[in-house]
Design goal:
Subcellular location: Cytoplasm, Cytosol
Number of strands: 36
Helix content: 10-25%
EC number: 3.4.21.-
Number of helices: 12
CATH superfamily of the domain at 456-687 and 696-704: Alpha/Beta hydrolase fold, catalytic domain
CATH class of the domain at 456-687 and 696-704: Alpha Beta
Shape: globular
Keywords: Cytoplasm, Hydrolase, Protease, Serine protease
Domain Peptidase S9 prolyl oligopeptidase catalytic: 505-691
GO molecular function: serine-type endopeptidase activity
């Protein structure tokens, strides 16, 4: 029900290769392949994959594609070649699975110990965390364990009843991803997704004494109620959302197409303003956006354009008192700023500045209320809360606790709320709940959680000087009781793509490493979003190597300052972070001893040379277009992890990949592993060093799971 800048910024990155619980209802079964959570994070606001990405269908694997002009001689010959390739793929897959089964037996005792420790920390630090509550009028809705519950807002006795159950409704293999309640609370719309796929299905329930399934719509990504009985939704196909439909739940039901996006680089989603005056159709590429308005008082009228897309200008809108409040990158500097314009004159020439961010300040999130606007900001590694009062035209800035590295804004469906609730966390600090009161004008911590305080962990913020003199932030955690830090193992984290920040939220396994003497370092390299839009721009396309230079400078500074040393250093990355991690293995393998990669994107050039893949066109704004630009092709080839493998002494590498990954095809990972093993063995056979060092190149292929976040149980096992 609420819009936040965080979900909007995620929305601009929907095509990412990134990384991220008694009534019997009428049952309608959809897919046999939908698979479930047991306990899953619910996304109440616009949020792909929780992190964050749009669903799509499973792509066929390919070892090669036909380039333009290539002749395919006959149907029979084509079928034979595909069959041969499929057999090759199956043979390699079986070989890797056999190899993993053999290797994993060695680590049974270790994995048992680690699993028990992580479970212990989970039970200690996260037992009292409640599911997000969504208040609508006098009622409160929340989800737990695959059920949606309803209770009264003033309910002190804990009375509630189930209005939807995944299992009882025939969707036993799915988890709840998103919930929307109609304004009069007669209907509930919820989306269900499998852990093995990014496809989602929207189920509409008619609420009452005995809730029943009113409709089931497959392949839906985002959806919003325009009125009590009019629902707008976007459809998804091959990881793309380009069509918007409207469907009614009146006596004469009908569905019609409202909007179609023609540009393959753009992704469409929906949002309803906080005051429910407008429903917005948001069409975003990586660098450009366009918004259309649906007046919720007249939901059958055609959408009205706010501002035609302008290359390089991102914007999104909220509404208050007949004015649009526009979060945009328009103007100089090209960072996010808050502007406004009359509803009657929404063109860019009428946008007036309300608030501009300071240099190198990152806008993490923004929440609109009837008389206030709250901005969550990050500057020099510290989090701040800026409260804009529309009445007094004042801005109050509040520095949040120094240990905090990330936050999660709680849902505020009613824009008239007088309090803003959110949680602060870090990789080694469990979430702690805070509230800002507009009436009291102060920030208070909600002590009811009784979460134990982490007292034995020290947080340090550093700046490393990169090759071009740019200062790159590093966040370091270590045990305060640790002595001789240069002898302690170090785990370095990196991402550096799509303007997305490193994940700095709490993970039990990170706290476990701290307790066992590890040092954790988070390198906020260019290409990510930690220092704003410019930080991302300086690390994408023809600047991608800057991210690699940043990473090298960070690791070298850590070693120089006595945080571990190369033989005790491991590097970890997920998804597109695999580009920089894989490039580091090729360029400076002597700096690290081991690498851990999850669903890594390691074959950039081959992927970007295949425009038929669903994400290739969209991602040209991040990586460039090697098909149209020879310089771009040479540049990508200069850092692409797969193309730069050579016989040398590599660190050991552990990779987790997913059979059903729709964003990073398994074939690219298989190719990478095969080539890396061969290069490592070639080097060993040539050098015959006394140590006989041959790195372990291990690939664990998960049959279940996907590129998006998995359930707690699956994450624990992994």
């Amino acid at each position: 029900m609420c819009w936040t800048a965080k979900s909007f910024i995620r929305g601009l990155s929907f095509s990412l290769r990134c990384y991220s619980k008694d009534n019997h209802l009428q049952a309608i079964c959809l897919y046999s392949k939908i698979k479930p959570p047991k306990c899953h994070i619910l996304t109440w606001s616009r949020s792909p994959c929780n992190s964050t990405v749009p669903p799509g269908s499973i792509l066929p694997w390919r070892f090669f594609s036909c380039k333009e002009g290539t002749k395919i001689h006959c149907g029979k010959e084509k079928i034979t070649s595909l069959t041969t390739s499929e057999l090759l793929y199956n043979d390699v897959l079986k070989s890797e699975q056999k190899n993993w089964n053999k290797i994993s037996r060695r680590y049974k005792a270790m994995t048992k110990r680690i699993k028990e420790k992580i479970e212990e920390l989970h039970n200690k630090y996260t037992p009292n965390l409640e599911s997000p509550r969504m208040r609508v009028g006098e009622n409160v809705y929340f989800e737990e364990n695959g059920c949606i519950f309803l209770s009264k807002a003033d309910n002190d006795k804990g009375n509630f009843h189930i209005i939807f159950s995944v299992e009882d409704s025939g969707f036993s293999d799915a988890f709840i991803q998103r919930i929307r309640i109609s304004p009069d609370q007669r209907y509930l719309a919820t989306s269900l997704r499998s852990e093995n796929s990014e496809e989602t299905t929207c189920v509409i329930m008619k609420l009452g004494d005995l809730p029943v399934v009113e409709d089931v719509i497959p392949n839906v990504f985002s959806f919003e109620w325009a009125t009590n009985d009019v629902l707008y939704y976007t459809t998804q196909k091959n990881l793309k959302c380009q069509n918007v439909f409207m469907t009614t739940f009146t006596n004469q039901k009908h569905t019609k197409l409202v909007y179609t996006e023609q540009d393959a680089r753009f992704f469409v989603d929906l949002y309803c303003t906080k005051d429910r005056r407008f429903l917005t159709i948001n069409s975003n590429s990586k660098t450009t956006s366009e918004v259309w308005l649906i007046d919720c008082r007249h939901p059958f009228k055609l959408p009205v354009l706010v501002q035609a897309r302008t290359k390089g200008v991102i914007y999104h809108v909220e509404h208050r008192n007949d004015e649009l409040y526009i979060l945009t990158s328009h103007g100089e500097p090209a960072e996010y700023k808050l502007m406004k314009a009359p509803v009657a004159s929404t063109g860019m020439e009428n946008w007036q500045l309300v608030y501009a961010l300071e240099e190198k300040t990152k806008l993490i999130d923004l929440e609109m209320f009837s008389d206030h606007c709250i901005m969550f900001l990050q500057n020099a590694g510290h989090l701040y809360l800026n409260v804009i009062s529309f009445g007094s035209h004042s801005v109050q800035s509040i520095k949040l606790p120094t240990w905090a590295c990330a936050f999660e804004l709680e849902s505020h469906p009613e824009h008239t709320s007088s309090t803003c609730y959110f949680q602060l966390t870090s990789p080694v600090h469990p979430p702690r709940r805070f509230a800002y009161s507009f009436k009291e004008n102060n920030l208070i911590e909600q002590a009811a959680q009784e979460v134990p305080i982490i007292a034995n962990c020290h947080t340090t913020r550093l700046l490393a000087k990169s090759k071009d003199e740019t200062l790159v932030p590093i966040t370091v955690f270590h045990n305060t009781n640790s002595k001789e830090l240069h002898r302690k193992p170090l785990l370095v984290h990196v991402y550096g793509a799509y303007g997305v920040d490193l994940n700095m939220s709490f993970k039990e396994e990170k706290l476990m490493l701290i307790e066992e003497g590890w040092i954790l370092a988070y390198c906020h390299v260019r290409g990510g979003g930690e220092l704003g839009l410019r930080w991302h721009k300086d690390g994408c396309q023809h600047n991608k190597l800057k991210g690699l230079h940043d990473l090298k400078a960070c690791i070298m500074l850590l070693h120089q300052l006595g945080f571990s040393q190369p033989k005790y250093t491991a590097l970890t990355a997920a998804s597109a972070g695999g580009v920089l991690a894989g490039a580091m293995c090729n360029s400076d393998p002597e700096l690290i001893r081991a690498v851990v990669l999850q669903a890594p994107f390691v074959d950039v050039l081959n992927t970007m040379m295949k425009p038929h893949l669903p994400l290739t066109i969209e991602e040209q704004e991040e990586w460039g277009n090697p098909l149209a630009d020879d310089k771009c092709m040479k540049y990508i080839k200069s850092y692409c992890p797969y193309y730069n493998i050579k016989p040398q002494c590599y660190p050991s590498v552990f990779i987790t990949a997913y059979e059903n990954d729709q964003r990073v095809p398994l074939t690219g990972v298989l190719r990478y592993v095969q080539k890396l093993r061969k290069a490592a063995l070639d080097h060993a056979s040539r050098t015959r060093t006394e140590e006989g060092w041959i790195p372990n190149i291990i690939l664990d292929i998960q049959a279940s799971g996907s590129h998006c976040d998995s359930s707690w149980e699956d994450s624990l096992n992994e």
